[in-house]
Design brief:
This protein folds into 4 domains: 141 residues, Rossmann fold (3-Layer(aba) Sandwich), CATH 3.40.50.300; 70 residues, Helicase, Ruva Protein, domain 3, CATH 1.10.8.60; 85 residues, Up-down Bundle (Zinc Finger, Delta Prime, domain 3), CATH 1.20.272; 74 residues, Orthogonal Bundle (post-AAA+ oligomerization domain-like). It starts with 12 loop residues before the first helix and ends in a 6-residue tail after the last helix. By secondary structure, it is mainly alpha-helical. Strands 2-3-4-1-5 form a 5-stranded parallel sheet. Helix 6 links the parallel strand 2 and strand 3.
């Protein structure tokens, strides 16, 4: 910081720096100063791991850090610069435009010409458009910057392929309750940067409650601890009542339009398919708790009734639609229970994707064989001319046939021959459908003089 005159009551620059540091949030003051101080990310930063060896040797590479908020992406970028003895510059894709990006890159280029590299940290990099992302490419190739992009979104969808090809993607994980508890204890014990000079008393159970409320975000946990400390006198105890106030409005991580949303709906759908009503209900509750639209959930449940239950239990579809209608009439929270009942029923009942698979097989044949003509015997013949042309000639009226089925006639275009798309499973109502269709298909083959396939 530039030197300046200070009133006698304030003191020298060192005291000013100390005062400024004290004004920083606890989460910023407790930011790890070395890899050993980082909590969590054991898979990525364990001693001897490839990334850790690269960082400690100063031979780092451009990378994308993909992970949830508060998992240590910014901290890791800072440590990269520290270990590589490089300049650290940070920009945010939310606040920065292309002119600022170009200025930062020009400064990094000038610094590189003088023999010093720059770690350029780009927060929320997925918010940059393609032109902004492309601006980094020549500088990454030249080596004038070590590019570190941070994102909470799937890089495969949000970043262009040119940038991804020049960076390695490292996946960072949300911190566990145990890891966050360690960070909270460090903050309570550290008298220089943390709350150690205040002699606060926080019980183990209370620390665990804070860590759970943080939902994998160590920055949020330290903020909650700092809020609790602000209402407690020095040397005091954080009571249960104080903590209840601090944690009253906590929310869990959820992004209605991002990976977390689609991961959770995938988890619910696959739990239904796997006949696990308890897991399905958990993910349903998680999504509602995170703010998912119940009407969207109703639509997805209706799809599950069609795709995964199908004709094994034809009651599933009307049940899903009835629950959807009940939600539309009742709203939340009363209507949520109707949807929860459907989640349980869909997960518990018999499953079959035979109709789904049959429909897809029929569509593939339509695409492959094109517009085949309708066989003459099953064409419509409402006029005399059409009858003279042979429309409907040879058609056998099934109700007049023995057994109610005219076994000798086909329903497919002549060029295709008979096809079998629908193969019922031996579950639920499809057991009976399978027995009936197997017998009919065998009789049709015999009536046409065909042998068993």
């Amino acid at each position: 910081m530039p030197r300046r005159s200070a009133p006698p009551t304030i003191g020298n620059d060192d005291l000013l720096a100390a005062d400024n540091a004290a004004l920083k949030p606890l989460a910023e003051r407790m930011r790890p100063r070395s890899l050993d101080e980082m909590v969590g990310q054991r898979r990525l930063l364990a001693p001897g791991s490839a990334l850790r060896r690269a960082i400690e040797s100063g031979r780092v590479h451009s990378m994308i850090l993909w992970g949830p908020p508060g998992c240590g992406k910014t901290t890791l970028a800072l440590l990269l610069a520290q270990y590589a003895d490089a300049e650290f510059r940070a920009i945010s894709a939310v606040l920065s435009g292309l002119p600022e990006v170009r200025q930062v890159l020009a400064e990094a280029g000038a610094r590189f010409d003088q023999g010093r590299r720059t770690v350029l940290f780009v927060d929320e990099v997925h918010r940059f458009n393609k032109a902004q992302q492309d601006a980094f490419l020549p500088h990454i190739e030249r080596g004038s910057i070590l590019f570190v992009g941070a994102t909470t979104e799937n890089p495969s969808f949000e970043l262009n392929s040119a940038l991804l090809s020049r960076c390695r993607v490292h996946v960072m994980e949300a911190l566990s309750v145990e890891d966050i508890t360690v960070a909270l204890r460090q903050a309570l014990a550290d008298a220089e940067r943390g709350l150690g000079d205040r002699d606060l008393h926080v019980g183990d159970e209370q620390l665990q409650l804070i860590a759970q409320a943080a939902d994998g975000d160590v920055r949020r946990a330290l903020t909650l601890l700092e809020i609790a400390a602000e209402v407690v006198e020095e040397g005091g105890t954080v009571t249960d009542a104080t903590l209840a106030q601090v944690l009253a409005d906590r929310t869990r991580r959820f992004d209605k339009g991002g990976d977390q949303f689609y991961d959770q709906i995938s988890a619910m759908h696959k739990s239904v398919r796997s006949s696990n009503p308890d897991a399905a209900l958990y993910w349903f509750a998680r999504m509602l708790d995170g703010g998912a639209d119940p009407a969207y959930m109703a639509r997805r449940l209706t799809r599950m009734a069609v795709e995964d239950i199908g004709l094994a239990d034809p009651r599933a579809l009307p049940m899903a639609i009835d629950a959807w209608d009940a939600y539309e009439r009742l709203g939340s929270p009363e209507g949520d229970l109707a949807l929860a009942q459907v989640v349980i029923y869909l997960a518990s009942t018999a499953k079959s994707n035979a109709a789904y698979a049959a429909f897809n097989a029929a569509r593939r044949d339509v695409e492959q064989h094109g517009s085949q003509p309708v066989p003459m015997h099953i064409r419509n013949a409402p006029t005399k001319l059409m009858k003279q042309l042979g429309h409907g000639k040879g058609y056998q009226y099934d109700h007049d046939a023995e057994g109610g089925v005219a076994l000798g006639q086909t329903g497919f275009p002549d060029a295709m021959g008979e096809r079998v798309y629908y193969e019922p499973v031996e579950r639920g109502l499809e057991i009976k459908l399978k027995d009936k269709l197997d017998a009919l298909r065998k009789a049709r083959r015999e009536a046409r003089g065909l042998h068993e396939p």
